[in-house]
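User: Quick sanity check before I run a bigger batch. Here is a single chain. Can you write out its predicted 3D structure?
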Amino acid sequence: MDVVGPLERGLTVLRAMSAPGGHRMRPSELARATGLARSTVDRVLATLVHLGHLRETDREVELAPPLMEPGNAYLTGCGVPDALGPVAERLADEFDESVSIAVPDGDGVRFVTQITRRRTMSLAFRIGDLLPAERCAPGALFAAEWDETARAAWLERRDSPERFPAVPARPAASAEEFDRRVARAAADGWSADDQLIEPGLVAVAVPVRGPDGRTACAVSVASHTSRHTAASLAEATLPRLRAETSAMEEALARSLAERAGTSRTAATEGAGGTAANAVGADPARTAKRELGPEFLQSLARGLTVMCALDGPRPLTAVAEATGLARATARRALLTLEHLGYVERTGHDFRLLPRVLELGYAHLSSLGFAEIVQPHMADLVRRTRESASMAVLDGDDIRYVARVPTYSIMSVDITLGTRFPAYATSMGRVLLADLPHSERAALLAGTALRPITERTVTDPAELAEIVDGVAERGHAFVDEELEAGLRSLAVPVRDGTGRVVAALNVATHAARGPVEETLAALLPPLTETAARIEADLRVVTRRKRLRLP
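Assistant: Done. Predicted structure follows.
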């Protein structure tokens, strides 16, 4: 077939950067890792950086949260996390053990949902991690439905542990041993992992079948030998897992039917449409005009097609959703099918779990501070002022992230530092987002003491100031916390629009008039908050993020 070369090479680069230790690399290292010419790597990187999937840091590039979009599309389209996630959470609470949901991915097992218990010894797999079928409980259930071709592929692969960096390397299991486990799983309707992944870890899994009667996924309960043996874990959990199976299969069938209904609606609406009423014009064409030959238009279009497949879609619907010509969308889909990221069933195309190998496990494991820190560092480079982030903690703010600037006269604050919310720019931003009654009650219960001679302590005046912050969307505090210190703050919102933190820059009053300070600092501060919010929306679209 006519493979779209730039798309294939771009995905090669992303796979190399998704490997352990490869999340941040120099272009020269990527050229060696992929075997691509340095000039080709440079063009791929320029395109991916422009799209936001990678971020430049000094002379290196690193994976960035927007790369999670194709994986998010798969997790939405497959229906499994939405249908079974609530059941997994309920079972994890009931068993007080970690519960996982995995799907088959070739001769491997890919995690799509993970509900963990917070213990010293707890399960540490991430969404998107790939395990060898012979080393985990779900693998035997999936292998029971392999045909001869699939089994032959597994036999050929057994001695390639580098494909599975999420598990410790161990000698390959014998085919006979695995065949016995597969036969037992098929006969019993469940499977166990008795320390196959690593010493001390035991797990029990049951299959959940799709509407076609095949195993769509497996739900696993994992524990440690300090709490259970494999036999006692099965005795404790199997009755409930089996009792829930029918309800889980019904929930999955409903979820898939809803996705199929959405696909049919999109196809019907798209059939009578034209390029003028497409969801969006082709953004790759604009970027190509701006960046010239360094921008790989077909790579950008291929990634856009992947993001559009948040369910089974016919070619017409994909072209309509992306603003691409049918022929362009078709070439991208056929290339993705050839590379193992897309499957075609009848007229519909859908993403396969392999798309999660593109950085999803690493990016989905990032914490709040890891997401915001690169943006704050860029803000400091642009403004040459220290940047901080804080959350509301009672009637105080608490610092949760900070990037200082290096100058003779700078603000010295460490993580965990607390200040009264009423006297700080970040505190006023956070107070402004509270319901009016809650804000009034909090301020009424706060001892408003003068910290400097300029600190506002009059309740009515302070309430008016906070109301103004709510209207303007930013807060400016001039020497109220410390003489000579000015700070400017804006809110940071999550995907629901709720303010979860405040971002500020601090400067010295001697560095210029107030008007100049606002003019210089507010635009980059607002832009940085918007970029952080965009990353938070992507990261939290399919997973919960633990906020500080």
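Residues 270-279 have pLDDT under 50 and may be disordered.

User: Great, the batch can go ahead then.
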